[in-house]
Amino acid sequence: MFTDKSIKGLKPKPSAYRLYEKGADKGFGIKVTPASSVSFFIQYSGGNGKQKFFSLGRYPSVSLSDARDKCREVRAKINQGQDPQLLVMQKHGTVADLFDYYVKCMIYDGKRSWQKVDVDLKYNCKDILPLQAKDITPAHIRKILHTIISRGSNVQANRIRSYLRRAFKLGVYHDNDPKNLSNDVTFQITTNPVDAIPIDTSAEISGERNLSFAEIKQIWHDPTIQEQFHLVTKLLIIYGCRPWELCGALKEEFDFEAMIWSAPPERIKNKRWLILPITPLAKELIDRLWLYSRDSKYIFPGRYNEEKPIHKTSLAHAITRIDSVLEFTPRDLRRTVKTRMGEIGIEKSIRDRIQNHALNDVSSKHYDRYDYLQEKKAALLTWEKYLIELSEKD
């Protein structure tokens, strides 16, 4: 058995050596270095049968008695199948750690809004960033949202609530996810504190703006829009796709032999391939847009950097500078196409497929793998013919 007297009497050697106590504390020992440093350790078997050592502290900062107590605590965890080296590296994650993990997951999932979410969370929740995530209660969340609502930003409060709910949901599952076993942070969140906070449904008003055929014609002939943006706007009116799906498109996505545009899942909101026929008018507009792209791999490259697509807000800014009395956003064009296509008799199921909406009925979700390309082409040709006739009317 080790004693304080025997430990003090230990002499250094040219290389470090270990001594083991022949007592009830299995694996308990002392390591002596050539510099006369003495420290306690416990030896245990790793998962692969390899012997591992876990430090219990340096003598005399850690007393012999305390080292034995710590040895027994660690041995109990080892007997439960836990690796003390992993446990000692992990810390209780703060809210800042949780937000970083949330943003990391967004980046991994290809979410383009991760920078905005990161900034919004850290600005609006700065008071709780240093706190441990496991200690956050509904009262903390309520205070954050009340502050935002007090400055008249009810919609923003709903956005922050949504971000917080998703972040804490990830935190709940984090510790039990085998992929995170080697992480140096553990959150120990058992319940989501945001679930108890109701969403302000009165603040969320669904978009209603959709352009009439007369307004579509006005945009089609508007001379105030810079040509590149005008071409993109017309393509959005033809396809009704999300603005970023078109503005961020790579040239390689357009197959002019098969006359098909195929946008990959990583660029699409619902992570589903967007497959659309290239109609004659769309081809004409794409060809004209192509000339502006020069040698870029993007059909609509950035103004100052051809290695990147145009910034997603640029189209909106261009539209706000239109001299006409119309007030609309690029997103309104998607709603317009859906509405006006229905008005000329195009079936809703085909309109849904053209706009790549996720169909949640059992048949569509699990069995129907037909691409409906011919049906989409027929509908788009009908819509395109109507647009051409509309633009030519006096």
Which percent range describes the beta-strand content?
A: 5-15%
Number of strands: 9
Q: How do the helices and strands follow one another from N- to C-terminus?
A: HEEEEHHEHHHHEHHHEEEHHHHHH
Q: What structural class do you assign from the helix and strand content?
A: alpha+beta
- What is the CATH topology descriptor of the largest domain? hpI Integrase, Chain A
Number of helices: 16
Strand line-up across the major sheet: 1-2-3-4
Whole-number total of structural domains = 3
Q: What's the CATH architecture of the largest domain? A: Orthogonal Bundle
Instruction: Name the overall outline.
Output: elongated
Radius of gyration: 32 Å
Describe the biggest sheet?
4 strands, antiparallel
Protein architecture, described:
This protein is α+β, with helices and mostly antiparallel strands and 394 residues long. It folds into three domains: 4-83, Double Stranded RNA Binding Domain (2-Layer Sandwich), CATH 3.30.160.390; 92-203, DNA polymerase, domain 1; 213-392, hpI Integrase, Chain A, CATH 1.10.443. Helix content is 46%, strand content 10%. The strands form three sheets. The protein has a four-stranded antiparallel sheet with strand order 1-2-3-4, with helices on one face. It has a three-stranded antiparallel sheet with strand order 7-8-9. A hairpin with a 5-residue loop joins strand 2 and strand 3 (38-45). It is elongated, with a radius of gyration of 32 Å. The model has no long low-confidence stretch (mean pLDDT 87).
